[in-house]
Design goal:
Blueprint lengths: L6 E8 L3 H4 L2 H14 L4 E8 L5 E7 L2 E8 L4 E8 L5 H15 L2 E8 L1
Antiparallel strand pairs: 1-5, 1-6, 2-3, 3-4, 4-5
Length: 114
């Protein structure tokens, strides 16, 4: 088990565009773009819309998962990307850029490595 490497990237998005945060198609496309951009392999996907607004979407990856939960009424979202391998600085920067380009706002990022 000593060779196991798990990385989790946590992005907290603030002051994002509420309409974008409530657009399921845009958010699902964003998750797919993230997976593709950092070389991850999508196995399955699902999402759920909340009433009156907000959504959660998840991609199951061969390497683990990526998930997002949005709160348009707060102009915010949380996105987590967990992989069974390291995420380098370039991958982190790419994910941050994709998220802010799609949803606006500013992002705070934390990375946990196990």
């Amino acid at each position: 088990m000593s060779n196991l490497s798990v990385s989790t990237l946590v992005l907290h998005l603030e002051q994002a565009d509420p309409a974008s945060l409530d657009d399921a198609e845009l958010v699902e496309r964003l998750l797919l773009e993230i997976a593709q951009a950092v070389g991850l392999h999508v196995v399955a996907s699902t999402s759920h819309r909340f009433t009156p607004q907000g959504l959660s979407a998840v991609l199951l990856l061969a390497e683990s998962h990526v998930a997002v939960h949005t709160w348009p009424e707060e102009a915010g979202a949380y996105l987590t990307l967990t992989t069974c391998g390291p995420l380098g600085a370039e991958a982190v920067s790419t994910v941050e850029s994709l998220v802010t380009a799609a949803l606006g706002g500013r992002v705070r990022t934390e990375q946990v490595r196990l």
